[in-house]
């Protein structure tokens, strides 16, 4: 099997990407693997340090979020990833914005 | 301590593992203690009483400093600490010499030894789904703002929970907390009830409002002040 190198996406990350692309059609999707920051946690230790794919930061820019408040947007992401969350995926740090909101943020002084 | 059939002093990780593996349906209580810690003396008495009362409970005494591997694997930071398992599944964690919490946890997950063996094997659930839901809603309403976190405000057991506490303190919001590590039923039940897979979870006026990211954003856009401000 190929050795795991720090830059390649593991199966969980790949799955997150596929599912979010399919359900939210984002204009931009950034996934960062934070798992190494949480290795020492007891829950991770019980899983043998986790599989290196337990904690992610995900930034989604998608117009599917229009008209929805933050809780609703996060629920959409959680719903798309419910399989992963019931397995090794332990936590997600989410940023969910529409393209308009990003525009407004970058153009304001 | 009297010699009790269900109480063991653990002297090796192998012995520990073998005892647990004998019956994966059995509820066990692990007592992490140290001879130099005064509160442990009293709690060891409590543990001994519980072992007598609940003979089907497997009680394992672990002298924390002698068994660093076992102690670390449960993330034990202070003695006395107690872990309740069914097989290898975590049911509850109690930190400190909290006799009422320990007694209540053991009562919840076991039954006193019945005089006749039960003929029907049914899961020892003392609490129905309805009762659990009612209990969770009560906790959610125990104060205007409740933070469901891992650990407690003075000792959070996860970075996200720690940030959640910091956020509430920064916003000068009075709150109470519930340690979801101390009750596995509530932990799993809340995920379903609030349709939210992670912790920390914030509730205001008995209603779930979101996790850390959500509330952080709400603070930024002023929504949080409104939600909390409303009497």
UniProtKB/TrEMBL annotation, chain A:
Protein name: Bola-like protein
Taxonomic path: Eukaryota, Fungi, Dikarya, Basidiomycota, Agaricomycotina
TrEMBL record, chain B:
Organism: Leucogyrophana mollusca
Record's protein name: Glutaredoxin
Organism ancestry: Eukaryota, Fungi, Dikarya, Basidiomycota, Agaricomycotina
